[in-house]
Each structure stands twice: as C-alpha cells, then as structure tokens.
Specification:
The chain is α/β, with parallel strands linked by helices. Helices cover 21% and strands 33% of the residues. Strands 4-3-6-1-2-5 form a six-stranded antiparallel β-sheet.
Length: 243
Amino acid sequence: MTSGATWHIATVATVRPLTPNASLITLGVPTWPGNDGGQHIDVRLTAEGGYQATRSYSLASVGNSTRLELAVDRVPDGEVSPYLVDDLRPDDQLEIQGPLGGWFVWKPSSDLRPVQLIAGGSGVVPCIGMLRAHSAAQSTTPMRLLYGLRTPEDLFFADELKTLGSANPAAISLVFSRLTPEHWPDPPGRLSRDSLAAHTIGPEQRPRLFVCGSTGFVETVLSWLTELGHGSTDIRAERFGGI
C-alpha cells in the first residue's frame, strides 16, 4: 500500500477512553484503500466561521479494512486533540487525508534482520500498527518493542501488549519513569542509555530500528543508539509535538 493524498469522509463508529488523557477512536471510511503499519493520516476540522485546523495522527490499524483506529492523546491548549478526545461522538463525521507516509513504515520483506521498535508515550501508536502488521503476516522476523512511559495509567493498548508479552516475554519491554505497577521488578526511572542497551537488540545483530516520540525523546534515543554502535542507515525516526 502506498502513500496517497486523497481526502475521505470518515464516520465515527466508537470513542472510548484509552487512558485518563487519551481516547481510542474508531472510524468507518468506505473509500479507504488500506494502509501499512506505521502510516498516518491528516485530520482536518473546520469551524463555523471557516477556520480550519489540520493535524497528523498515526494509525494503529493496518491492512485493507475500512475501519480505522486512532489513539489520540489530549494536549493542553491544543486545537484538535481536545476536541477529538473530549467532544467527538459516534456518527460525527471527520475529513481525513491519507494514507500518508512511506518511510516510517514496516511491512514484510526479504530483509530478515530483526526489528527493534522504540516508543515514548503516544509514540507507541505507529509501533502498534507495525506489531499488528507483523502478526497479520505471520512474519518470522524477530520484532521487539521498548516502550517508555510515565505511569501504568499512561499505558496505551495495555491488554494487547500484555497478550503479546505473555506469548513472548522478550518482545515487550516497558520502562516507567514515575510510577511502576505493583511488584514490578525495576524501580521507576527515566529511560537511560544503559536501560536502552539492556532492553533492545544489540548492534551486532544489525537490527532495523524505528524510534517514535516527542522531539526530545527521539533526539536523545538517536544519540544513544549511535553511541552504542548502531548504524545511522539502520534507524528511522518520527517526531511529534504538542497539537
């Protein structure tokens, strides 16, 4: 599936809380052509006076389904995310453009090197799409996720990640910076170069790496990966800001 610039009318099917500050939004889009893991859409809102605001959101859903999933984190003072999280209701309609993005994407290929996903906060959403694409393809390529977040309450797709972790404990690593779940083996603390090295595939295996999160998170992780010996051509990164 390739990137496109087509605008579609999306009808909201469901909106449910994902965390105290985020919602999982399911959209029905009859004209959707399908998308790969890691792709995103633009959402355009138009006010009564004609003012428009457009923001990009990663897709958690993959494949040829016309049912899309967005996980949107509420950003204080944002123009779009507070409306999507707090005010959107079933049967509301949105203008969306996509699928967009062809670089920060994972899809089955002849490259069988392992894949390491590294996410901070809501940057886990495109990684979920990649994990789902990996599962749907029944790929034998090793794929692991390192997910840094503040507290257990901030965990996106908790049940899905628990299931994946139960099937393969090495596949999912969580690092909590402020508060950990009860009986968690590690104390809370920010992701560090040492913990990054401990929870990710080493450079000797030449993994393909995908890093997504806030600009500060991504830049820090990229510098550590370079110091640890990963090649820059093996790393793809996607940054986001508050919107």
